[in-house]
Amino acid sequence: MTHARSERTALCDLFDRLGPDAPTLCTGWSTYDLAAHLVLRERRLDAGAGIALRPLAGYTASVQRGLKAKHPFPELVGLVRTPGGLYGLLPPLDEAVNTLEYFVHHEDVRRAQPSWEPRELPDDLERLLWKRLDMAAKLMLRKSPVGVVLHRLGGGVAIGGAKDGPKVEVTGKASELLLFCFGRQEHARVDLTGDPDAVARVTHAPLGI
Question: InterPro entries, per this entry (predicted)?
Answer without folding.
Answer: CHP03085 (IPR017519), DinB/YfiT-like (IPR034660), Maleyloyr_isom (IPR017517)
